[in-house]
Write a structure and sequence with these properties.
The chain is α+β, with helices and mostly antiparallel strands and 313 residues long. The chain is 41% helix and 16% strand. The chain contains eight helices and nine strands. It has helices at 8-33, 75-92, 162-171, 175-191, 199-218, 256-269, 282-297, 302-308; strands at 2-4, 36-41, 51-53, 58-68, 99-100, 105-106, 120-129, 135-141, 150-155. The strands form two sheets. Strands 2, 4, 5, 6, 7, 8 and 9 form a seven-stranded mixed β-sheet that branches. It has a two-stranded antiparallel ribbon with strand order 1-3. Strand 5 (99-100) and strand 6 form a beta hairpin. Helix 1 packs across helix 2 (75-92). The longest helix has 26 residues, at 8-33. The two termini are 49 Å apart.
Length: 313
Amino acid sequence: MFHYVEDKEFLRRVRGVCGELMQDFCHTLKDAYDIGANFCLVGSGARNLIVQNASEPIDLDYNLEIDRCVDFEDCRAIKACAKKAFDKALAMHGWGHCEDSTSALTTKRRYFTHGNRTAFSIDVCIVAADEDGQTARLIHEKTGYVLDDRYYWNIAPHSAQIREKADCIKKSGQWADVREQYLRLKNMYMMRNDRSHPSFVCYIEAVNNVYCAAADRRRRPIWGMTAEPRTRAKAAPPFCRRSVLPPALSFCRFSILPICLCLNRCARQGTAGRPYKQKSCGKSVLSAAFLYFFKKAWVRRPSARRESCRRPG
């Protein structure tokens, strides 16, 4: 099972070494292949999302975001240039060549000779943002024959405005919920042996789950009324519609509004079998409205309650 790495000194050293290497990677990619890119840890530098499976080596997941390129559609050339530039940067730091996996460039494992000797490696996922703000990953689909391999951009689901959502969550002090969701998703996909959900996808899901839950909590029903099933009902009179009444009258929704509805109903029904007449004075109409209101709103119906408590069969 995955758990968060708590050794802060070890994480500081690992991030320092990997950060310098990634900087050289971006510089080499720009100077040698004229490709502009920037890098960040998964979660826009959220250092608290580094997990470890028991005592196994840890992986630092970086996103290499391509923001300038001659042809974004030439995915094969982008992946080849990125691999060559990464190998050059690794050689500058004494590391071996990287491996080209389906959705990332993976380095060999390294460890410190002093202090925490936990091995670590780097996974670099090549990404780009489209016009709608969605993030797409560069996928290398291997077929067994190099010439037949497919390279394409795969849009990560629900990735639009992921950075803005993460910033809102951090400002509201709910980043601990993202950590909890992220760890739960990592363990869930590991137990399913699902390798199609890398850390970046798990991070997007965690941020979206927390953001949507917070948005649902912020919603409040209008007029303090609970939502009811959508049924086809008669339209309310003009003076009783919620869009017409000012917000200042919200305090009297349990008194004035029902009376207004009853008055309107009394005026419309007239002499249709009611104890009041259409030509009666305003006092009689008001009295009838009060009687009707108390009958409908306050008098309990024992038969309905007995029926609701009846056992089935």
